[in-house]
Amino acid sequence: MRLTQEFYVRDNVVKIARELLGKVLYTEQNGIVTAGMIVETEAYSWKERGCHAYGARKTPRNAIMFETGGYAYVYLCYGMHHLFNVVTNKAGTADAVLVRAVEPVIGLPEMQIRRGKLNNPFHLTSGPGKLTKAMGIDRKLNGKSLLEHEVWLEDSGERVTPAKIEVSSRIGIDYAGEDAKLPWRFTIKGNRWVSK
């Protein structure tokens, strides 16, 4: 069942980041569908220094974060990796969840073509830049509604209980000072697709 806007517009981005574990991210391009179960997320809020919209600072790059929850925020990291985020909260409040890793469930052959030859099959989608390449996600999907047909999320019925969730600090945001230590990264314990 496709997630509705009500799921995204809630005001607790950390709770949403936890609840996205086990949900399935889909893309459809030229009739080709790929999908992966989300196994790793990170929460970002305008109130903390790890966020692109810290202090409610709006720029051309992060403008979609200020829209009503339920949009894709896709940006280029280090000039080479596209990263996929789910915009949450009400309009004017810039919160988002970075999807860091997925376990492939549909379209594995297409994902393998997009990623090329890999020595380790688990490297296919075990990181935020890897999963976007495998699923054909780039800046063209920035600002797309997650309620439509190019990129969307579904509830597969997979229940990820608190006992199955590992909580840690987010990765690669040392510039955020004390905020880098916030326990806002969530992974499914023992899942081999979680980023290393």
UniProtKB/TrEMBL annotation:
Q: What is its EC number?
A: 3.2.2.-
Per the record, the GO terms for biological process are: base-excision repair
Q: Which Gene3D superfamilies match?
A: Methylpurine-DNA glycosylase (MPG)
Hydrolase listed as a keyword: yes
InterPro entries named in the record: Formyl_transferase-like_C_sf, MPG, MPG_sf
Q: Does the keyword Glycoprotein apply?
A: no
Query: Which keywords label this protein?
Result: DNA damage, DNA repair, Hydrolase
Gene Ontology molecular functions: alkylbase DNA N-glycosylase activity; DNA binding
- Which EC main class describes this enzyme? hydrolase
Highest taxon of the source? Bacteria
Of which family is this protein a member? Belongs to the DNA glycosylase MPG family.
Tell me the protein's name.
Answer: Putative 3-methyladenine DNA glycosylase
- Organism placement in taxonomy: Bacteria, Pseudomonadati, Bacteroidota, Cytophagia, Cytophagales
